[in-house]
Every structure is written in structure tokens, then in C-alpha cells.
Amino acid sequence: ETGVTQTPRHLVMGMTNKKSLKCEQHLGHNAMYWYKQSAKKPLELMFVYNFKEQTENNSVPSRFSPECPNSSHLFLHLHTLQPEDSALYLCASSSPGLAGRPQYFGPGTRLTVL
Amino acid sequence: SQQGEEDPQALSIQEGENATMNCSYKTSINNLQWYRQNSGRGLVHLILIRSNEREKHSGRLRVTLDTSKKSSSLLITASRAADTASYFCATDAELGNTGKLIFGQGTTLQVKP
Known about the structure:
The complex is a heterodimer. The model of chain A has no long low-confidence stretch (mean pLDDT about 90). Chain A has no helices and 11 strands. Helix content of chain A is about 0%, strand content about 55%. The relative contact order of chain A is 0.34. In chain A, the strands form 2 sheets. In chain A, strands 2, 4, 5, 6, 9, 10 and 11 form a 7-stranded mixed sheet that branches. A 4-stranded antiparallel sheet of chain A has the order 1-3-8-7, with no helix packed on it. Chain A is globular. By secondary structure, chain A is mainly β. By secondary structure, chain B is mostly beta strands. Helices cover about 0% and strands about 55% of the residues of chain B. Chain B has no helices and 11 strands. In chain B, strands 2, 4, 5, 9, 10 and 11 form a 6-stranded mixed sheet that branches. Chain B has a 5-stranded antiparallel sheet with strand order 1-3-8-7-6, with no helix packed on it. Chain B starts with a strand and ends with a strand. Chains A and B meet through strand 5, strand 9 and strand 10 of A and strand 4, strand 5 and strand 10 of B.
């Protein structure tokens, strides 16, 4: 868990605010992921980046905008969110390879949209 | 579509007992992984079993995989209070080894001291 850091750990924002979540991995991985975890729901994959290129957008609303400037950093820009977007947002990273790809998760950002 | 479904949704046992959690999935997989999540925290990878493996051990953990039944089980032996957490299975089913995982809803395990 300490190999992937996320900031902030908690965020409260109004529906008209713009904020960003940051994720950094220190594991030398080349793939990074954003997940949303809501109460009583399975973990939902939002975005996947491989070698800084977005390879998956799981039909995420445009009010969520990811950015991956390099293989170590991943951002999630938030604007005009809805109360139902309140959730735990988790970042993960993994290393490409033929032997399977365990993912390493950060501690998450607990987001509350008022 | 949801790939992994876990059973039971919640499990409460006494310290020292064994805990068994099951996961079923729908499509062919490259591998299946188990993760643990303590309340409000990130997930921690526990063990990965490939589609051509049937059983794997790691410390007090034992994972089985039955591809004919599209199911897996996680056994935690001699449980401890510190094992209290949610446990998730995740399947890697994509062609081309993309690393994309689909997670189940999880089993919440409570181990009473």
C-alpha cells in the first residue's frame, strides 16, 4: 500500500467546485488505474492508462477527467459533480508482463459531494 | 457486466476457526486474484492463481480454482482478529493481457477474539 500514495485522503466539495485527486506510484509500474467504490457496490473500474496512454474509459461521465503526465503520476480532475459521485476513489498500478498483473492500490480518497 | 460473485456476503467466526469464501465468474479467465480491504482503505493483493493452476498456498491462505465450474475459493486457516476485513475476488479475462480486472462484491469477514 505504501508504494502508491493518494492525496488528499478526504475531500468535501460543492457541486460547483473544481478539484483534483492525485495518485503517485513509486513501484516503477507502467499501468495505472482509477476505481470508484460506492457503498454496497462492486469496485467499478473507471480509467486505465498504459505507458501514459488511456486504454480504457468505462463510460465515465465527462465531469471526471483523467490525466496521466507520466507513468508515475495520475490525476482525476473533478468538476460539476453530483451527490451520487460521493464515494471512495482508489488508484492502483501494475507492471505489464506475461505472468499476470497484480494491482497495487493506494489508500483512496474519500470524496463527499454536497 | 459483473464477472465475479462472492458467497457468502458476510461471515462471522471465532478466532482460530477457518474461513472459506467462494467466488463464481462467468467467462474464461487468464487468472483470478484475491484481495483484502480493511475498512475504508485500499485493497491489498493476497494471491493470484492462473487458469492452468488448481491450487495455491501462501502462508495461512489456500486458494483453489475450478475452471470447469468457473469458481474459486479462498480458505483462511486458524483465523485471527486481524483477518477481519472484506475479501474480493477479481478476474483477469481480457485478451492480450491488458491487466483489466473485474471485481466481485466481496465477502465481509468478522473474526471475533
